[in-house]
Amino acid sequence: MWYYVQGVLALAMINVISVVGLAVFTGFTGLFSLGHAAFIAIGAYTAAISTYFYEVNFYVALLLGGLMAGLVSLIIGYPTLKAKLRSDYFAIATLGFGEAVRVILENLDITQGARGLPGIKVYSTFPVVLIVTLIVIYVARNFVFSRYGRMAIAVREDFTAAEMMGINLFKVRLRSLFFSAVCAGVGGGLFAHYISFIQPSMFTGVQSTMLTAAVVAGGMGSITGPIAAALIFAAIPEVLRVANMWRLVAYGFILVAIMVLRPQGIFGYKELSWKTFSGLVRKTSRAKGGAA
Amino acid sequence: MTVLEIRNLTKRFGGIVACSDLSFQVVQGEIMGVIGPNGAGKTTVFNLITGVYGPTSGQIIFRGQEIGGKRPDTIVETGIARTFQNIRLFKNLSVLENVIIALDQKHVEYSLPRALLRTPAVSRSEEKLRKLALDYLGIVGLEDKAYQRADSLPYGLQRKLEISRALALEPTLLLLDEPAAGMNPEESLELAGLIREIKNRFSLTILLIEHHMDVVMELCNRIVVMNFGEKLAEGTPEEIQENPLVLKAYLGEGYKRA
Amino acid sequence: MLLQTLVTGLAIGGIYALMAVGYSLVFSILNFSNFAYGAIIMLGSYIGYFSLVKFGVPFPVALVLTMAGASLLSFFNERIAYSSLRKRRAPSLYFMISAMGTSIFLENMVYATIGSSFMAYPEIFKQQSIRILGSSIGLLDLFAIIFSFVSIYVLHYFINNSRTGIAIRAASYDSMITQINGVNLSRLIGLVFVLAGALAGISGIFLGMKYMAYPTMGWITNKAYIAAVIGGLGSLPGAVVGGIILGILESLVSVYIASTFRDVFSFSLLIILLLFMPAGLFGKYLEEKV
Amino acid sequence: GQKAPQTIKIGHAVALTGGSSMWGQAEKNALDMEIAKINEKGGVLGKKIELVAYDTKADQTEAVNVTKRMIGDKVVAIIGPGQSGVAIAMTSVTEPAGIPFLATTATNPKVTVDEKSGKVRKTAFRTCFIDPFQGKVAAQFALKELQAKKAAVLFDIGSDYSQGLKQFFVEAFKKGGGEIVAEEAFRSEELDYRAILGKIKEKQPDVLFIPTMQKEAAMAMKQARDLGMTDVKFLGGDGWASPDLITLGGSATEGAYYVNLASLEDPGIQEWIKAYKEKYKMDPVMPNPVMAVDGLLAVVEAIKRANSTEPAKIIAELEKMKDVPVLTGKLTIDPNTHNPLNKPAVIEKIKDGKFVFHARFVTTD
Amino acid sequence: MLKVENINVFYDQIHALRDVSLQVEPGQIVSMVGANGAGKSTLMMTLAGVLKARSGSIFYNGKPLPTEPHLVLAEGICLVPERRRLYANLTVKENLLMGAYLRKDKKGIQEDMEKMLDLFPIMRQRINQYAGTLSGGEQQMVAIARGLMSRPKILLLDEPSLGLAPLIIEQVFKTILDVKAQGTTIFLAEQNAFKSLEISDYAYVLETGRVILSGPGKELLDNPMVQQAYLGVRH
Ligand SMILES: Nc1ncnc2c1ncn2[C@@H]1O[C@H](COP(=O)(O)OP(=O)(O)OP(=O)(O)O)[C@@H](O)[C@H]1O
Ligand SMILES: Nc1ncnc2c1ncn2[C@@H]1O[C@H](COP(=O)(O)OP(=O)(O)OP(=O)(O)O)[C@@H](O)[C@H]1O
Ligand SMILES: [Mg+2]
Ligand SMILES: [Mg+2]
Questions:
Q1: Fewer CB within 10 A of the terminal residue: chain B, N end or C end?
Q2: Which CATH number fits domain B2-79+171-251: 3.40.50.150, 3.40.50.300, 3.30.360.10, 3.80.10.10?
Q3: Do the Cβ atoms of C182 and E50 come within 8 Å?
Q4: What residues line ligand 2, using a CB cutoff of 6 Å?
């Protein structure tokens, strides 16, 4: 049983890495992406190709994957953020971007198209995944609890006022996007070396939306909330196995229920965010305040 | 010394000319009032100065530098800060954080890689910021509200927070857009005192839009009166109060007080 | 060849347009992307199928049943998944996630009850096609295009000129104040969802006739979202134009460039368009005055 | 001294939800029925067989999870999965654990043979033929029986199955002297092919090969006929094997041929089909259930021969398997590829709105 | 006409109104004076049905007041909210039409619309402009006009003079008197305490959520405590 639980956990943690990245972007700048699966894919393919064809060291490959995903995020982020696309427009643009990436992966030679890359070495053992996840969470937390996170929040809250505080909207948003893409890329690299076989069809828009769902259900502007949500979302389908074919019905139902009953997220609106911020805010009243 | 010079400034929104061939100058250390009927274009002038809009034509020269059409964040860097007619705080953040954000540009002493690894320098810098922010809150008397959510403050205190946040940007020119709106006469006078105090303490130059005439007359060295986007009059408070054009367009013939 | 390609594109675009309009309608009042819309269309398609095949009713009756059924679903969708969020004035992202949950729920509900097999509609407009200038267009497609134009025009007029229409737009900006103005918000929003549901029903039955009914058919609405964005969210004429542009572009790329890269082209177009017109062709950004 | 388990657990990795659940459910039904039969006769090695089935949703990550779970449950072998991609992903778990699986309809060669090293995967087996064979069958059938000279292909670029089968068909067709006049692709889930079909029409192919799943194939045939492609013959692979193909495609599918692993009309399995229909009140959705039963029978036979339920021994026996009677005939496994040898292909034809057994087809090199 | 008995209103834990009781008689102008955060707007919103009182009751002509905003309006009670709250995405004209949402008399609506444009002539030039782009004061005018369009029996005015030029303030107060003359009851919250007390028949002083003083407007105007705290008069 532990073998199986470990497996589920490892995949859940790999997911957590991407979710944490997305939480930094969506939760803190207020923009949401429906194309993050593309960054995971890019990370996965870059890392896998590095170890598979070029026998690059696994950890170097992970970094390469993250970096590549980050670079690609600039391709979509630079023009769209420069043009100041807003919420749904930005989301649809990223949705389109995600699909486009998948088409390209399906057509490239090096990725072997839809047939995918089988036989990737399994390096992502449980301890490796655990350690990488903890590192990513730590770094993300630091990011968020620094001026960079604070500026992002300001932009999310009121971008006009933020600009008037001397904040460069474009830089702040792009930086967060880049960070989240790197996380997704690292997650993708781990994933490829866990599952040992990747295909473009594994990185769909549905996956992107599930990532966003975890961030929102966990609580915008929180890191721990989305982590919890990602873990819970990974656990629900497994726990519901008994329900057989009804399990995904229940899954959808639970998702709606979370939003309806706790629209501020599982743990409430940014339960952790600034409150614990280097001991800054000690007796805040915000802990329980809703987003109303 | 002239700090800000507006030269033939014009701004059109479609058919509406919100600001038309406007020129005036602001001198170092003065409080200049901008008054005029509703829709005269006062806020638009502020928006042009702070880069919210780009001018249709004309120039805005701040300390010898043309700033018309630049991005707001670069304009802030040159030393201009403002408050908003419709309050724009970061509502979900605490009062303190609102001020810290203003401090983030000039007072932070760490780079992104350090932030990611959270070196001791980061914590030190953050602690310094917190202290500094509390100082700024102290100026407007909000330090005991530092940890409340900004939007739970009553209207009047929100205005004060906006002022304190603007001060934290360390401007040399401060633009205040109807700071006394929604205050009763007593509170307005108190606010006027505060404005004078910060002006002296930080040696600011202030541009003030206000409809509360007591405040304007009390504070301003000079006043520009706008009407339909144009300059209707300019002068000392005494001159303005006597000006028949101003009385007719803005104050009302019955205006007698002070 | 070119003409035929254009006509084919127009036919696909007509369907996109029809779906985009219902989606845009909901957007225009609640300001969020109702990702459950695809699932409502899908269920509409099933209702149409069962009416026609299992109950054997004539087509017009089936159409009405479908519209009614989808309206009802759409209405309950709002009541269950959105109304409490609305009352708490949750940000639009929360609505979207709730919508996603709804769509997962509905889709898998179909899998669990009806199963994964595909339902083919009887051939009502018996593959008739008419020839215009040497290119052929299916009667069904033609009907869909005309139908979308008419329903969209009516809707557009309604939203812009009627008392209720103004109230819908007002509520999209500030629902609290609309209530102060005497609007029964629950009823108004219910009405919008009923309307959108009726459109979903029509789309569903057309999609079903053109292709088939199956659990994941809601994905086609992705294209509708894109069409709506091209046209400008919340703009009904925009949704139509967006749908048709997308349909034609896809056909042209398929034929003259490469069908596999079709999506890359349409998405690139989308992104490039947004760079120059960040609110789509007809959308407007409400610049909040500072 | 561990207590020996009372039953023999056999895993089943199967898509019980999602788009492939139609076949998955049938697979599970068939296995349940077969195991009941075996247990009634006293089981194997005096123990009853217990089926441990988990849903994979036809998704790789889910499959990896459930495989781990089955291994935790101490299964001795696994039946399934039905999808090549899923099977390949599963090998990352079964290989180190040493638990064999017998894929049902995963026809991609890479399932059992590691592409890079060219070595056979120790734990991966299957009971179906492979795509190169299927592609060759389709190509030679088109050339010989349909007398086709020009073929066009419409495939799904987002599907590994479709991409692979297309490639093998094209190779074999060219090798046999035919000409490929068009290779056009669409992306998964898309349903309107009129634009590309128009392009194909201009090339006037004799045969249109559509190596996709039934939904896409049905739509393509329908739209092709709509566009006035009246003479072209349609040809497909085992992805077509669902009655939905005919309901969806309607009259357009009339006269189309496709290659299948097994046929409902295969005389050898009529009795079994009758039993299935009696028990479940419907036809088994071909070909997955028979392939799964083949796998089960092979495992049972291996256990018997090894006189042990140790997975390593089962693997050894599977590798040696020769002419073992299973549902679809006799099973021989090639130890170098773990593929069944001489598994015949069935050509089915759509006639009067029904799948009709057309012929067994043997390829020539 | 309107009777408030011991209501308590909360924002989460913040106790914004404490046992507030007051009464509004038909045909009168009743006003509220109070510092920032005293709870004036909270009371207005509660009367309009936007906020719910946790305890206490509100009676309108002897019957309990409905608690749904649209039903309150249907009873003839209309709130002009603080800080304007216009529909930024609608034109000025459409905003006015929304004010008349429950009215069915097309002609009457048209006439009233003309009246409003005469009242605030600058609105006439802006009639097809999006309300969101109006200047602050212009918006305030539209907000007042929108409230009047419903022809309320009781008009709740929350800081109608906010951000208005002195000349226009005069006009607004004149309008308030006109509206009163036509028989509409007015409940007014104003920071401009001088003017509002001057025209009020009766007034209440609110401090941190409690009524601490009440009396006829003129009387309060002469009250030293009121003068000092709200009128800026120094003795
Ligand atoms: N973004 C915009 N689009 C269209 N018109 C605008 C825009 N911004 C301002 N205006 C118009 O320009 C004119 C001047 O507006 P502005 O806000 O500058 O007035 P103001 O002098 O600040 O008035 P108030 O004292 O009422 O705040 C107004 O008539 C307004 O309608
Ligand atoms: N949305 C809210 N959430 C939490 N507290 C609030 C909220 N709105 C108002 N309050 C609090 O309720 C109290 C009463 O506020 P209210 O707005 O009613 O005062 P007011 O008398 O209208 O003040 P002003 O003159 O500034 O408009 C204040 O302490 C305020 O901080
Ligand atoms: Mg202004
Ligand atoms: Mg108030």
A1: N
A2: 3.40.50.300
A3: no
A4: B 152-156, 182; E 11, 14, 16, 34, 36-42, 82
